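Please describe our next protein:
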Amino acid sequence: MGIERDTNCFVCGKDNPIGLRLKVMKIDGGVRAEFTPKSLYEGYKGYIHGGIISALLDEVMIWAAKLMGKRVMSAELSVRFKRPVPVDKTITIEGKITDVKKRLLYGEACIYNDENTVLATATGKLVGME
Protein backbone atom coordinates (compact mmCIF):
# COMPACT_ATOMS: atom_id res chain seq x y z
CA MET A 1 0.00 0.00 0.00
CA GLY A 2 3.01 2.28 0.34
CA ILE A 3 2.03 3.65 3.74
CA GLU A 4 4.47 3.74 6.63
CA ARG A 5 3.48 1.30 9.36
CA ASP A 6 4.48 1.65 13.01
CA THR A 7 5.70 -1.85 13.79
CA ASN A 8 4.83 -1.45 17.48
CA CYS A 9 1.23 -0.25 17.00
CA PHE A 10 -1.11 -2.30 19.20
CA VAL A 11 -3.60 -2.87 16.39
CA CYS A 12 -1.47 -3.17 13.24
CA GLY A 13 2.12 -3.51 14.42
CA LYS A 14 3.83 -6.73 13.36
CA ASP A 15 6.40 -6.50 16.16
CA ASN A 16 4.03 -5.92 19.08
CA PRO A 17 3.98 -9.21 21.05
CA ILE A 18 0.52 -8.53 22.54
CA GLY A 19 -0.93 -6.73 19.53
CA LEU A 20 -3.66 -7.68 17.09
CA ARG A 21 -1.36 -7.54 14.02
CA LEU A 22 -4.16 -6.36 11.75
CA LYS A 23 -3.24 -6.29 8.04
CA VAL A 24 -5.09 -3.48 6.31
CA MET A 25 -5.50 -3.32 2.53
CA LYS A 26 -6.77 -0.69 0.15
CA ILE A 27 -10.18 -1.14 -1.50
CA ASP A 28 -12.28 1.19 -3.63
CA GLY A 29 -13.33 4.05 -1.39
CA GLY A 30 -11.39 3.02 1.70
CA VAL A 31 -9.70 0.10 3.44
CA ARG A 32 -10.52 -3.43 4.57
CA ALA A 33 -9.03 -5.98 6.93
CA GLU A 34 -9.94 -9.50 7.89
CA PHE A 35 -9.31 -10.65 11.43
CA THR A 36 -9.95 -13.77 13.47
CA PRO A 37 -10.12 -12.67 17.13
CA LYS A 38 -8.82 -15.13 19.71
CA SER A 39 -10.04 -15.73 23.26
CA LEU A 40 -7.10 -13.64 24.50
CA TYR A 41 -9.25 -10.59 23.66
CA GLU A 42 -12.49 -11.74 25.33
CA GLY A 43 -14.79 -9.62 27.44
CA TYR A 44 -17.39 -12.27 28.19
CA LYS A 45 -16.53 -15.90 27.50
CA GLY A 46 -16.70 -16.51 23.77
CA TYR A 47 -17.05 -12.84 22.78
CA ILE A 48 -14.60 -10.04 22.06
CA HIS A 49 -14.23 -7.12 24.47
CA GLY A 50 -15.83 -3.85 23.31
CA GLY A 51 -12.53 -2.03 23.65
CA ILE A 52 -10.93 -4.33 21.09
CA ILE A 53 -13.91 -3.84 18.76
CA SER A 54 -13.54 -0.07 19.15
CA ALA A 55 -9.80 -0.24 18.45
CA LEU A 56 -10.40 -2.18 15.23
CA LEU A 57 -12.99 0.33 14.01
CA ASP A 58 -10.74 3.26 14.93
CA GLU A 59 -7.75 1.73 13.16
CA VAL A 60 -9.43 1.33 9.77
CA MET A 61 -10.58 4.95 9.79
CA ILE A 62 -7.01 6.06 10.50
CA TRP A 63 -5.73 3.85 7.68
CA ALA A 64 -8.31 5.34 5.32
CA ALA A 65 -6.93 8.79 6.18
CA LYS A 66 -3.37 7.52 5.61
CA LEU A 67 -4.40 6.55 2.08
CA MET A 68 -5.21 10.20 1.51
CA GLY A 69 -1.73 11.16 2.69
CA LYS A 70 -3.04 12.44 6.03
CA ARG A 71 -1.35 11.75 9.34
CA VAL A 72 -4.15 11.85 11.92
CA MET A 73 -5.15 10.92 15.44
CA SER A 74 -8.64 10.21 16.70
CA ALA A 75 -10.44 13.17 18.21
CA GLU A 76 -13.80 11.46 18.71
CA LEU A 77 -15.13 7.92 18.27
CA SER A 78 -18.74 6.80 18.52
CA VAL A 79 -19.36 3.05 18.40
CA ARG A 80 -22.63 1.13 18.07
CA PHE A 81 -22.41 -2.47 19.17
CA LYS A 82 -25.13 -4.26 17.20
CA ARG A 83 -24.32 -7.93 17.88
CA PRO A 84 -21.69 -9.75 19.92
CA VAL A 85 -18.43 -10.48 18.08
CA PRO A 86 -17.51 -14.12 18.69
CA VAL A 87 -14.00 -15.46 19.14
CA ASP A 88 -12.44 -17.74 16.52
CA LYS A 89 -14.73 -16.49 13.72
CA THR A 90 -13.29 -14.35 10.94
CA ILE A 91 -14.67 -10.82 10.74
CA THR A 92 -14.21 -8.10 8.14
CA ILE A 93 -13.53 -4.51 9.14
CA GLU A 94 -13.96 -1.68 6.62
CA GLY A 95 -13.33 2.02 6.97
CA LYS A 96 -13.51 5.16 4.89
CA ILE A 97 -13.24 8.91 5.12
CA THR A 98 -16.54 10.63 4.37
CA ASP A 99 -15.59 14.32 4.63
CA VAL A 100 -12.59 16.61 5.11
CA LYS A 101 -12.72 20.08 6.64
CA LYS A 102 -9.25 21.58 6.97
CA ARG A 103 -7.47 19.53 9.68
CA LEU A 104 -10.61 17.59 10.64
CA LEU A 105 -11.57 14.38 8.82
CA TYR A 106 -14.80 12.46 9.31
CA GLY A 107 -14.82 8.70 9.03
CA GLU A 108 -17.07 5.66 9.13
CA ALA A 109 -16.25 2.03 9.87
CA CYS A 110 -18.09 -1.27 10.07
CA ILE A 111 -17.45 -4.81 11.28
CA TYR A 112 -19.39 -7.67 9.75
CA ASN A 113 -19.24 -11.44 9.77
CA ASP A 114 -18.97 -13.93 6.90
CA GLU A 115 -22.74 -13.75 6.37
CA ASN A 116 -22.56 -9.94 5.90
CA THR A 117 -24.33 -9.34 9.22
CA VAL A 118 -23.27 -6.02 10.71
CA LEU A 119 -21.79 -6.56 14.17
CA ALA A 120 -20.60 -3.02 14.99
CA THR A 121 -20.37 0.40 13.36
CA ALA A 122 -18.52 3.58 14.18
CA THR A 123 -18.24 7.18 13.19
CA GLY A 124 -15.25 9.26 14.05
CA LYS A 125 -13.55 12.58 13.85
CA LEU A 126 -9.85 12.54 13.11
CA VAL A 127 -7.56 15.51 13.51
CA GLY A 128 -4.46 16.17 11.43
CA MET A 129 -1.17 15.92 13.28
CA GLU A 130 0.77 18.30 11.00
User: Anything to note?
Assistant: The CA atoms of residues 3 and 66 lie 7 Å apart.
